[in-house]
């Protein structure tokens, strides 16, 4: 029997011919109705070629190369569990909705397949891709949701839905066909700029002027997630005895880590979402009685006795000590290893501590030699940082370093002093400025 005569091939060819005759652009309204029918609280569509997503397209196509349309969906969380000072209650709500949203996406993909439409569901969770170093997610749900009209980013760096507010989680279905229309960002930002998220953050990661300290948030809130788990492993390996280990980790911390490993990792705070009054469904109590809202929602989180995880010498350390003296602090090490100079340069704005940079105004030129020949200029001025590839027009300090040696120093595997003495790292300029640069990146 020839291949073209095989019963399976004959049936498939027949279906293909029928579909070609009926073929028309994929209905956007049908897609969004499909998402809601399977349990999505809301849905929006955006083409992958949208200019605002240019930087995301290559990552998305790693997951599903045929992607042409992005179906952004959101799942709705119950507000009161997320607001609970008992964070196990809040974390259960996060994880339950993540699981539901993944199931919603799976069912959407399954029904699309029945219609002969190829699609793939991305993963709704954090982190989504654990192969460090590098970006730990492939499909960035937040910018896709904004482009698809599901809301805008709030001061707390999460998407705020116009109706459901901050109490949503996101996922994306990647579709291999074009839709007949797409959505666009909503015309206003639901964020009220009330600064309650700033007041709630126990480590000061959110700033009143809208700035965000990524490393401070990552160090505390994501203490039991991927990156900071390395610190736990290091403590186990380095401990000479059980007594030595218990000097590093309390029994409560060990138990909490066990819970995260056996169930799912728990957020230490996420208070910024808990206190947010934005969105039509959440705003009324805030409008009717602001002092009462603060007393009922914000104060229990501020007053809670808990351990805050901070990097030694970080802005968070001083902020927490002054703002929340009743909360215990524990100094921890930066646990993300830098595997390349590119990773180092990308990490600089994320780990920059602007409080430690007060009074520092200087430009630093880095010239790396060896396996990674890269030149970059880092400007720190007015408590802000700018990293640019290429040489600096004028530099106050010039650093020339062997790339491998520099990474070993950054990863605490080699002494900076030894590297300078052996001229594997050479510093030309004011050494006081060079030391001040290092203080801007604690841990």
Task: List the SSEs and their pairings.
Blueprint: H1 7-22, H2 28-37, E1 42-47, H3 57-63, E2 69-76, H4 79-83, H5 87-114, E3 119-121, H6 141-147, E4 152-153, E5 159-160, E6 168-175, H7 196-200, H8 214-221, H9 226-238, H10 242-248, H11 251-262, H12 271-274, H13 284-288, H14 290-303, E7 307-310, H15 315-323, E8 328-331, H16 341-351, E9 362-369, E10 374-381, E11 384-389, E12 397-402, H17 403-410, H18 416-421, E13 425-429, H19 431-439
Parallel strand pairs: 7-8, 9-12
Antiparallel strand pairs: 1-2, 2-6, 3-6, 4-5, 9-10, 10-11, 12-13
- CATH overall fold name of the largest domain: NADH Oxidase
Which CATH class of the largest domain?
Alpha Beta
Q: If helices are DSSP runs of H or I spanning 4 or more residues, what is the number of helices?
A: 19
Percentage of residues in helical conformation: 40-55%
As laid out across the biggest beta sheet, the strand order is 11-10-9-12-13
Overall morphology: globular
Report mean pLDDT, rounded to a whole number: 92
Can you name the CATH architecture of the largest domain?
Answer: 3-Layer(aba) Sandwich
Strand content: 15-25%
Q: From the alpha carbons, calculate the radius of gyration and give it in angstroms.
A: 25 Å
Q: Structural class, please?
A: alpha+beta
N→C terminal distance = 69 Å
Strand tally: 13
Number of structural units classed as domains: 3
Largest sheet: 5 strands, mixed
Low-pLDDT runs: none
């Amino acid at each position: 029997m020839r291949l073209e005569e095989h019963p399976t091939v004959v049936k498939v060819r027949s279906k293909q011919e029928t579909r070609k005759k009926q073929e028309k652009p994929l209905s956007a309204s049908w897609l969004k109705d499909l998402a809601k029918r399977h349990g999505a609280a809301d849905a929006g569509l955006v083409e992958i070629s949208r200019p605002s997503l240019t930087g995301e397209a290559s990552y998305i196509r790693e997951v599903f190369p045929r992607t042409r349309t992005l179906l952004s969906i959101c799942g709705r969380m119950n507000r009161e569990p997320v607001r609970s000072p008992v964070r196990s209650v809040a974390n259960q709500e996060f994880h339950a909705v993540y699981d539901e949203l993944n199931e919603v996406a799976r069912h959407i993909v399954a029904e699309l397949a029945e219609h002969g439409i190829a699609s793939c569901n991305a993963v709704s969770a954090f982190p989504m891709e654990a192969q460090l170093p590098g970006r730990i997610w492939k499909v960035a749900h937040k910018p896709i949701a904004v482009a698809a009209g599901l809301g805008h980013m709030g001061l707390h760096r999460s998407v705020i839905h116009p109706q459901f507010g901050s109490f949503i989680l996101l996922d994306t279905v990647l579709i291999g066909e074009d839709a007949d229309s797409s959505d666009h960002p909503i015309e206003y930002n639901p964020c009220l700029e009330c600064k309650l998220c700033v007041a709630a953050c126990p480590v000061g990661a959110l700033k009143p002027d809208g700035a965000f300290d990524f490393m401070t948030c990552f160090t505390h809130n994501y203490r039991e997630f991927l990156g900071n788990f390395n610190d736990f492993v290091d403590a186990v390996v380095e401990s000479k005895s059980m007594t030595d280990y218990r000097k590093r980790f309390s029994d409560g911390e060990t138990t909490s880590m066990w819970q995260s490993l056996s169930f799912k990792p728990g957020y230490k705070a996420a208070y910024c979402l808990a206190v947010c009054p934005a969105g039509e469904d959440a705003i009324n109590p805030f409008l009717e009685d602001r002092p009462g809202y603060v007393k009922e929602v914000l104060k229990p989180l501020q007053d809670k006795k808990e351990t805050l995880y901070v990097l030694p010498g970080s802005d968070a350390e001083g902020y927490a000590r002054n703002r929340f003296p009743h909360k215990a602090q524990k100094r921890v090490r930066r646990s993300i290893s830098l595997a390349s100079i590119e990773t180092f340069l990308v990490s600089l704005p994320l780990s920059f501590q602007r409080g430690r940079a007060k009074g520092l105004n200087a430009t630093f030129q880095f010239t790396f030699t060896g396996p990674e020949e890269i030149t970059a200029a880092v400007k720190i001025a007015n408590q802000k940082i700018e990293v640019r590839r290429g040489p600096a027009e004028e530099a106050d300090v010039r650093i020339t370093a062997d790339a491998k040696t520099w990474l070993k120093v950054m990863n605490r595997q080699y002494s900076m002093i030894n590297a300078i003495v052996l001229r594997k790292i050479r510093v030309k300029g004011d050494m006081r400025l060079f030391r001040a640069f290092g203080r801007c990146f604690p841990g």
